[in-house]
Design a protein that fits this description.
501 residues; alpha/beta; 11-stranded mixed sheet; two-stranded antiparallel sheet; 23 strands
């Protein structure tokens, strides 16, 4: 970790905006943007830390760092902490004036004990997805629960809005509801991430997105029709009943072309730029499920296993994240000026909250396959000279480690610092492809652990301007450089690479 004096010198390049500090205003990003990336693709594995990545990768490939994107030329990490709101309602985050109160990750503290994963100082705390997505998409560290707002509650322009203003297209894709925290952080503005109806209404009726894909369907769950009257259905995730009924008419409400059947997602996924097929100008895709989109392609070798796990109806009616991704890329690429798209594997987080390693592997496999599909799309229909592809996470969930990290004294499968014996952080042992590794979870919540960051393509080397520190033990443990940025610097990198300010 750099000295505080070194940090002071580094942060001297940061410009204050009112009482809020925006790392999007780093002089390099503003004055020396290379601007070579016409297209920017940001993949977010929600809740997907280093060991969650290894857990899923061993299951999917049987190799250490065996996914396609894990061999990208840029492999560093990101620190995800957010701003703490004090009990009196005040907020402060100023690393220039008092770095000792404002740095939310300490390598020294992290590796001491399990408590180090949630180490915090006066003005920082462990993030949620809303604050982290806002940081990723807007370049601002903010308060937990805030969507598209700075720490003082003011609206901040997101990267999608800036792309649209520059004449490019933008889209959001998620395996969660369209108005859930991560896609919301990239496309809406709200003081409370749980105001789903308000967020959905803004996304559908006010945003200028060209693609919006996710779940939250009022009438279906896991592909099965919900047997309730229209008055009893939950319309919150899609902007409320009036908005949903306007969308459902499919008559071009706000310029959207609406789809919800898997066959329609598959057709658009196949409508590649060289196919000559007609594509909608704006695509609103609501998968036929109220909750999470099931990872129907999550099994490594046996598609029939997913039918046994989720039911035939669910598999037949649910698009894979790969299909959703390709549909989005095909629609967005109609804009010759370029595009930005956020693609989230949102349910890795939910699996890890539940300490469910099996489900985490399935979710990760579906996510990794979607990244692989995007890589193939770039190489066939674009190029690495004009496209930047990033794979990262908004935060770690579950504090996953290898088997033997603690002795489960009370034999309940969960770690308790008071009842169980911590033995030391153990690595996850490699398994054969299709075999779920043995792991132990130290938490059911989010942590401040570093998360991986991979990048390839136009402007990927911009990351060098934003390195905040180095964790030497992490470097040795996970076999990478150990360098880390802040999650707000992901925005900086995308801005510098694309020239979108």
């Amino acid at each position: 970790m750099p000295s505080f004096n070194a940090l002071r010198r580094f942060f001297a390049v940061v410009l204050a905006v009112g009482a809020c500090i925006s790392f999007a205003t780093i002089s390099y990003a503003q004055e020396n943007a290379k601007g070579t990336a016409k297209n920017v693709i940001l993949f977010i594995g929600d809740g997907d830390g280093f060991n969650s990545e290894l857990l899923g990768t061993y299951y999917h490939t049987g190799k250490e760092w065996g996914e396609v994107y894990q061999s990208f030329p840029v492999f560093i990490s990101s620190s995800t902490f957010c701003v703490h709101k004090h009990s009196n309602g005040s907020v402060e985050w100023d690393p220039v004036a008092e770095p000792e109160k404002n740095l939310g990750y300490s390598p020294k503290e992290f590796w001491k004990s399990p408590d180090g994963a949630n180490w915090r100082v006066t003005n920082t705390e462990t993030t949620d997805s809303a604050a982290s997505s806002t940081a990723l998409n807007c370049g601002y560290k903010t308060v937990g629960g805030y969507v598209g707002k700075d720490m003082n509650g003011n609206d901040v322009e997101n990267f999608a809005e800036k792309n649209i203003k520059a004449g490019r297209s933008a889209g959001m894709v998620s395996t969660n509801q369209i108005s859930h925290a991560t896609p919301a952080g990239g496309s809406a503005h709200n003081i409370n991430r749980n105001n789903y109806a308000e967020i959905g209404k803004e996304q559908i009726e006010k945003s200028q997105l060209s693609v919006l894909i996710g779940s939250g369907h009022p009438e279906y769950n896991n592909g099965v029709k919900i047997e309730k009257s229209a008055d009893e259905l939950n319309y919150n995730f899609v902007g409320g009943r009036e908005t949903w009924e306007n969308v459902k008419k499919n008559d071009g409400f706000k310029g959207w072309s609406f789809i919800d059947a898997r066959s329609d997602f598959a057709a658009l996924a196949a409508a590649t730029p060289d196919s000559g097929k007609e594509l909608p100008n704006r695509l609103l895709g609501i998968v036929r499920t109220t909750g999470d989109v099931m990872p129907i392609d999550g099994d490594v070798d046996d598609p029939e296993a997913m039918i046994k796990r989720f039911s035939k109806t669910t598999v037949e009616e649910t698009p894979s994240l790969s299909e959703m991704t390709l549909a989005a890329l095909n629609v967005l690429s109609q804009n010759k000026n370029g595009f930005y798209v956020l693609i989230e594997g949102g349910s890795i987080d939910h699996a890890n909250h539940g300490n469910n390693a099996d489900q985490s592997c399935l979710e990760h496999t579906g996510f990794a396959k979607a990244v692989e599909a995007a890589v193939e799309w770039v190489e066939k229909y674009s190029s690495w000279d004009e496209t930047l592809l990033i794979v990262t996470s908004d935060h770690e969930t579950g504090q996953i480690w290898g088997d033997g990290t603690f002795v489960d004294e009370d034999n309940n499968g969960r770690f308790s610092s008071k009842k169980d014996t911590f033995e030391g952080f153990e690595k996850i042992e490699k398994t054969k492809k299709g075999v779920v590794p043995a792991v132990q979870y130290l938490s059911t919540g989010h942590t401040n652990s570093l998360v991986p960051f991979w990048a390839k393509g136009a402007g990927a080397d911009c990351y060098k301007e934003f390195v905040r520190g180095n964790d030497k033990k992490a470097a040795k443990f996970w076999k990478y450089s150990g360098d880390f940025i802040f999650n707000s610097d992901v925005y900086n990198i995308m801005s510098a690479a694309s020239g979108i300010k």
